[in-house]
Amino acid sequence: MKKILITGAGSGLGRGTAIGLAQAGHQVIATTQIWPQVSELRRHVAELGLQDRITVDKLDVLDARDIANAVAWDFDTFVSNAAIGESGPMAEIPVDLVRSTFETNVFANLELTQRVIRKFVDAGTAGRIVIVSSMGGMLTAYGLGAYCASKHALEAIAAALRDELAPTGITVQTINPGAYDTGFNDRMGESTYHWQDDAINFTREKDIKATFAEIMKGQHDPQDMIDQMVAVIAAEDGKYRNVWPPATEELIKQVQNNAWTIPVNPV
Q1: Looking at the 3D structure of the chain, how many domains does it have?
Q2: What are residue 130's phi and psi, to 5 degrees?
Q3: Does residue 260 fall inside a structural domain?
Q4: The pTM of the whole model exceeds 0.90
Q5: Structural domain boundaries, residue 232
Q6: Structural contact between residues 45 and 51, judged by C-beta atoms closer than 8 angstroms
Q7: SS (HEC) of 63-92
Q8: What pLDDT is stored for residue 267 in this prediction?
Q9: How high is the pLDDT of residue 60?
Q10: How many CA atoms lie within 13 Å of 54's alpha carbon, on the beta-carbon side?
Q11: C-alpha 197: how far from its chain's center?
Q12: Hey, which residues does 54 pair with through a beta bridge?
């Protein structure tokens, strides 16, 4: 039985994974960004009869007091899952939105991860760090540049931690979900229209919407990814990088290979 702390469990893949891990027999601390999510998730956990397996509490990765409380909890596996998404063409997205994306997805998560690592090192715990990245950590898509850039940064952080922590017995893994229909991707796309203005921006709203509509097609059933995340996190060992579904792994490899062979577009 593992004792697992997971952030970003208020909705989507994080919520489903927390529940799935508890149903698999593990002790889970499922954390959410805001108190209303805590209350709602506690009710749902009670309805499922999992209150002895899941502790629900607030952990906003931007809140220093929440972080201090979190590192005092008893766990041997940390799943860094909390993330936000801002979208729009990289050529015009306000830089403060890019900065806020990095603040949550990169800096706040790194700070919490560092605190967890120190907890494990001081206790001599051969714990596990699981960083939930994205397919966007290894490729980019139109309008999702800010989010993808933050996930690219997480990939570098995870790889550095993997090598640095090898002597301690602390293991590091990444999970890279493809496009799943949790509502996160759609909300991220919608965030564009809070700043985009045809009277100011040279990218047209209708063109952005048309491109996003195409990107959002064919999103997968979240339960498929949740099952994979539960399997990876619950396993005693496994691969460093875990991309799902297989078609997404193949797409990433193709895109990365093409970067070496496709010439720049002629002017």
Answers
A1: 1
A2: -115, 115
A3: no
A4: yes
A5: 3-247
A6: yes
A7: CHHHHHHHHCCCCCEEEECCCCCCCCCCCC
A8: 53
A9: 98
A10: 30
A11: 29
A12: 28
Amino acid, single-letter form, for residue 85: G
Residue type, 234: A
Q: Is residue 264 part of a domain?
A: no
What's the whole-number mean pLDDT along residues 133-148?
Answer: 97
Q: Does residue 266 form part of some domain?
A: no
> At 221, which CATH number?
3.40.50.720
- Secondary structure of the chain as H, E, C letters: CCEEEECCCCCHHHHHHHHHHHHCCCEEEEEECCHHHHHHHHHHHHHCCCCCCEEEEECCCCCHHHHHHHHCCCCCEEEECCCCCCCCCCCCCCHHHHHHHHHHHHHHHHHHHHHHHHHHHHHCCCCEEEEECCHHHCCCCCCCHHHHHHHHHHHHHHHHHHHHHHHHCCEEEEEEECCECCCHHHHHHHHHHHCCCCCCCCCCHHHHHHHHHHHCCCCECHHHHHHHHHHHHHCCCCCCEEEECHHHHHHHHHHHHHHHHCCCCCC
Task: Judge contact between 5 and 32, C-beta under 8 A.
Answer: no
Q: State the chain's mean pLDDT as an integer.
A: 97
The token duo for 52 is: 């002895």
Does 141 fall in a domain? yes
Q: Give mean pLDDT, residues 164-173.
A: 98
Dihedrals phi, psi of 172, to nearest 5 degrees? -125, 135
- Are 170 and 127 in contact by the 8 Å Cβ rule? The answer is yes
